[in-house]
Design goal:
CATH superfamily: P-loop containing nucleotide triphosphate hydrolases
Number of domains: 1
Order of helices and strands: EHEHHEEHEHEHEHEHHH
Helix content: 25-40%
Distance between the termini: 31 Å
Bound molecules: adenosine-5'-triphosphate, magnesium ion
CATH topology: Rossmann fold
Strand order of the largest sheet: 3-4-2-5-1-6-7-8
CATH architecture: 3-Layer(aba) Sandwich
Number of helices: 10
Length: 261
């Protein structure tokens, strides 16, 4: 089992969109995938049309409390979700350093059956994000190609580095930054791309996800891009992203054959 955190304190950069869409692609292609939502907003559940208030299933709050006896919610043969809701807010603290609770929970045998666990995190620099990071083998930072969002990338990178340096046993690998919602026709875009290439070198992912009305609409229809749109460009980009992440995580045996041209 490998674990991956998607994080950025900047809101609305595409964390949840990326988590849900790559998880769906992985699970549709035989990769046993678990999404753990750590965001009190619970957007992941909404996007996946799952009732986040359901009492009988394991939630991320239960994980934080070490109560693992409830059932994990399966949304398909290979896709499971540990949802979150506002009750996890009590663990979201910007003043304490988190990092030991989730990592321990993840060692439980119930998680061993998954090929990949993906954490969706809140747009904060808080203990819950630190919990996700410290429970992860890898982390990814999404950004929009906008001036203020790019400032957010270096802040997110510093936050992650500082968190990791304060923990003894954890050392998640930085997979890189993915540009989301690109509008290549916009005059500032090439400047931002160049600047990020300069700053990040090979830590800027080759895959870039375009801004698309269908991607933006897909949560409204409670469907992932794969299931919703005829926009093959967006489908292809999410496939490319899913595969580039597998490559960067060295899970090469799971690389997915692309069905979109
Ligand atoms: N490639 C894209 N094209 C068009 N719209 C997009 C794209 N990616 C994300 N969006 C839209 O942008 C908004 C923010 O995306 P999302 O909720 O995934 O960001 P987030 O980082 O998880 O936000 P938060 O920080 O609040 O958790 C959503 O309305 C989503 O549908
Ligand atoms: Mg989100």
């Amino acid at each position: 089992m490998k674990s991956l955190s998607i994080l950025c304190q900047k809101g609305g950069v595409g964390k949840t969109t990326i988590v849900v869409n790559i998880a769906k692609i992985y699970s549709n292609n035989g990769i046993k995938t678990l999404i753990v939502d750590l965001d009190p907003q619970g957007n992941t559940s909404t996007y996946l049309d799952f009732d986040k208030q359901k009492k009988s299933i394991l939630t991320s709050q239960d994980l934080m409390e070490g109560k693992l006896e409830k059932e994990i919610a399966f949304l398909g043969d290979n896709l499971a979700l540990i949802p979150s809701n506002e009750s996890i807010l009590k663990f979201n603290n910007e003043k304490i350093i988190g990092g030991s609770v989730l990592a321990k929970a993840l060692q439980s045998f119930v998680f061993k059956d998954f090929d990949i666990v993906i954490f969706d995190t809140p747009p904060t620099m808080s203990s819950l994000v630190q919990e996700a990071l410290c429970a992860s083998d890898f982390y990814l930072i999404p950004t929009k190609p906008e001036f203020l969002a790019i400032e957010g990338v270096s802040q997110a990178m510093s936050f992650a580095k500082e968190t990791i340096s304060k923990q003894i046993k954890v050392n998640p690998v930085f997979l890189g930054v993915v540009l989301n919602q690109i509008e290549s026709g916009r005059s500032s875009y090439l400047d931002f791309e160049k600047e990020l290439e300069y700053l990040l070198a090979d830590k800027l992912l080759n895959t870039k996800v375009s801004s698309s009305a269908d991607v933006a609409d897909s949560p409204y229809y409670l469907k992932t891009v794969e299931d919703f749109t005829n926009d093959n460009k967006s489908k292809k980009e999410f496939y490319q992203l899913a595969n580039e992440l597998l490559e960067r995580m060295n899970i090469n045996e799971k690389i997915i054959e692309q069905s979109y041209n």
